[in-house]
Amino acid sequence: MIGKADRQMSFSDYWLLGKISEVSYYHRLRTWVFNNLNEEMFQPLFSYYGRESISPVYTFTAMLIQFEKGYSDREMEEESRFDDRIKYALTAPRDFDGIDAVTLCDHRKRLFNSEIGKEIFIKTISQAKEVGLFNKDNLHIIDSFMIWGSCARQDTYTMIYQGIKMVLRFMKFYEMEDASKKILKRTDYEENIKKPKIAWENEKEKAKLLEELVKDALSLVENIKTKKDIKDDLKKAIELLERIALQDVEITNDGHVKMIEGTAKDRIISVVDDEMRHGRKTSSKLSDGYKAEIITGGEKGSVVVGIEVDGANIADGEHMSDLIEQSRRNGVDIDKLYGDCAYSDFEEIEKRKEEGTDFCIRVPEATNPSGGFSKEEFKIDLEKGTVECPNGHIKQFDTEKTQKHEQVTVKFRAEECNDCPLKDQCTKSKKGRTINIHPYEKEIQEQREYQKTDEFKEDYAKRPNVERNISELTRHGGRKGRYRGKLKIRWQMIMVAINNNIKVIMKHISKICNRQIKKGEVCPKTA
């Protein structure tokens, strides 16, 4: 049963009012919560019968404070009992007994599977519009940042071993464990260890262990697949086990198992959180976990208006279309969008331009990894359908394909290239140089020329405003995942975005109030 917030002030509470700075996070959060949150919003999460819980207004606000200050549930329990600033922000009286960690965990679990966080996020966007944050300085910018996973990355041996143990736990629960004992070669799966104890510096022992683990895993999977009416959680566990058993290995014709070279595509890196992925923000910066993509809006791009979360291996720009649509659903029409090279998807750009959205997005410069002539050194005539190399050789290509936005590959003959005096500056291939004509080559060429102008440079200089947002989000709860799985990480990012938007809204209202008080005018109603 839902609990009610105690809003009755005592003399002690009134005394505290003047002690908390009006420009502090605590005061601004309290003011926003007082005017915007009530128990009715959270009623769908609770029964109408039973023992009364702590007010969800308190717990939701406490979760916002946790992300802002980095508190764990136990730390939040202590702070809510003894810190007057926290009680003040919660809108609770000074004699409030605090929120225990178990209640925080219970209410959070209810919120994970509801749309309430999303609804409050949309509410903050509407308020930002109401208070005038979407003005002439409005900026819509798209960018991404990495989120560290909450679980450790596991090696292949650990994943398969732990995957087998996980399946065996489910089998024991469903009273199927007797069947497993007959098919498994190893007998140490019930031991309380992360992976088998062997001489890890011995390559033969490692190869033997890998073969045993893979064969045990596949035998277990095949055995369970023959059963009828497999429970959903067990089915999911065996699908995961089969995938991790095969993703890093190959089975030779004679039945032996060996590790493959390189990294499997979309590789699972943990059985504890199977949605975490390897990722790179730059060529030198690795990250394991998730990636968040955001669109900002409002004055100087300070308000988060859309957010998506995916595995860390997903390329930047993958969710550009989804974010534009999400922003519209959230009540924000994007007239112009700023982004870096990762968002130079001209198929999407041309589609959105027809809908009235303009773009200020940089196209990456043409480069040649081997250090020779780049594509820009070749004269590409899209109307005549010709490519001329730096030495004057000309090749034809099909203009009908480029007009249909199809990719075209132009190959210069090996005889021409091998006898060319400029070959060392062009290609190391004995088969000749190859030039790919992009489906949107015309638009890319035009954009590269436009990027050289002062007009573009002045306009594009607005894009880095998003870096302030990302810094704010990552410093206050957005850098490290607290939970497992995309659903929960996305909820975490929504809460972090709500916090950001509240701070921006309340700061903007304070500025308006200060200006109007100086003029002798009445301060507008707070959000």
UniProtKB/TrEMBL annotation:
InterPro entries: IS1182_transpos, Tnp_DDE_dom, Transposase_InsH_N. Signal peptide: none annotated. Residues 389-505 form the Transposase DDE domain. Residues 28-110 form the Transposase InsH N-terminal domain. NCBIfam families: transpos_IS1182. This is IS1182 family transposase. It comes from Aceticella autotrophica.
